[in-house]
Write a structure and sequence with these properties.
The chain has helices at residues 5-13, 18-34, 80-88, 90-99, 137-156, 184-190, 204-208, 214-228, 233-237, 249-258, 269-285, 291-312, 317-337; strands spanning 36-38, 43-52, 57-63, 69-74, 106-110, 117-121, 169-171, 177-179. The chain is α+β, with helices and mostly antiparallel strands. The structure holds adenosine-5'-diphosphate (ADP) and magnesium ion. Adenosine-5'-diphosphate (ADP) is lined by residues 50-55, 58, 71, 104, 120, 122-123, 126-127, 167-168, 170, 180-181.
Length: 343
């Protein structure tokens, strides 16, 4: 399926079914007041909204029978055409989770209700977007190498994401990155349906023609990797990575290959995963400070600041709260390190 971006945009603007969307919205409000959603086998109680995207809203919910936390995606911002496609291709999405645990598990769905919705595992640490500006080199490389591994497994089965962005990389309770919305866009494109791309992270060829290929996913992942190392996507697209001399050479050259303007030269996801693993190994050898020592440094700085203030005059309520938080953080750090070998 090949279509020019302009046609795509125009068709999206005047997409049939916009009236349907409004109608679904009205009914949604009624439903949300009741705050209970039902499927063939379960009931889900909506707890709080966690986000909103191009398909609708995402809510933290509780499975009524087990009290387990889940995430519910209410499909309110899509046309009936999209919903019909999704329903008929649902199998593809559920196949993803059988292949790897690197995608968000889909647990349940109801395509008969209004609004239509599906239920997923809840990733309590939220999306990668919120951690982008505070990852260490090691953490960034580790997360992206795990995502590349997941991509390689799905690409081997001809399943592509096409909307990779930090918001679609969720972090599970155990810290594992999990891909959300896998295949939604490619399912629709295969059926000739139109959907908007996320321009900040989309591969350049997608702006000219929509072609389903592994290269588009690897390109987006290259942008996310660069961003998690402090280089915004706009700069990364302009080749700024080559100038970031503080990054290991091997990592810079991999990112540049991932961002090649010729999709045919872009490495496959399994190659990216392997190379990132090797790079990770080298970073480890340089003995970068581990997470605990970084936490210790931050605590020390915060402690000094409070002491400085204390010496100057009376503390405010906010200062006291801050001091209490430092105390609690330090206590939990001590719990973590007690029993560890000390140099
Ligand atoms: N399974 C999930 N568990 C926890 N949070 C989620 C889950 N799915 C989505 N979210 C949160 O909801 C937000 C909106 O998701 P979504 O509707 O897919 O839009 P987008 O991916 O465009 O941000 C995401 O950015 C993410 O923070
Ligand atoms: Mg999403």
């Amino acid at each position: 399926m090949i279509e020019s971006a302009t046609t795509l945009h125009e068709r999206t603007k005047h997409a049939p079914g916009e009236e349907d969307i409004e109608e679904i919205h009205l009914e949604l409000i009624t439903n949300v007041k009741r705050a209970i959603l039902t499927t063939e086998s379960q009931q889900y109680e909506l707890v709080s909204k966690v986000g909103e995207g191009s398909f609708g809203e995402v809510w933290l919910a509780r499975e009524v029978s087990s009290k387990k936390s889940v995430a519910v995606k209410l499909l309110t911002l899509v046309s009936r055409e999209f919903l019909n496609t999704l329903r008929s291709e649902w199998q593809i999405l559920t196949t993803c989770q059988k292949l790897t645990d690197g995608v968000v598990r889909i647990l349940d769905s109801n395509f008969e209700s209004t609004p239509q919705f599906y239920v997923m595992e809840y990733c309590s640490r939220g999306s990668l977007a919120k951690y982008l500006d505070r990852l260490t080199l090691k953490q960034a490389v580790k997360i992206i190498s795990e995502v590349a591994k997941t991509l390689s497994i799905l690409h081997d089965h001809d399943i592509y994401h096409l909307d990779l962005k930090p918001n679609n990389i969720l972090i599970s309770k155990s810290g594992k990155p999990k891909l959300a919305d896998f295949g939604l866009l490619s399912i629709c494109l295969k059926r000739g349906l139109t959907l908007t791309l996320t321009p900040r992270y989309a591969a350049p060829e997608l702006f000219k023609e929509i072609r389903i290929s592994y290269a588009a996913d690897v390109y987006s992942l290259g942008l996310i990797l660069a961003e998690s190392l402090g280089i915004p996507p706009g700069k990364a697209r302009e080749g700024y990575v080559a100038k970031a001399k503080h990054l290991p050479y091997r990592l810079r050259s991999l990112i540049q290959r991932m961002l090649d303007s010729n999709p045919e030269k872009i490495p496959r996801a399994d190659e990216v995963a392997d190379e990132l693993k090797n790079i990770l190994y080298e970073i480890k050898e340089k003995k970068s400070p581990d997470d605990l020592s970084i936490l210790l440094l931050t605590l020390e700085e915060e402690y000094r600041n409070i002491i400085k203030k204390l010496n100057k005059g009376p503390l405010t309520m906010a200062d006291l709260k801050r001091a209490k938080m430092i105390y609690l953080k330090a206590k939990s750090l001590l719990d973590k390190v007690s029993g560890r070998k000390v140099l």
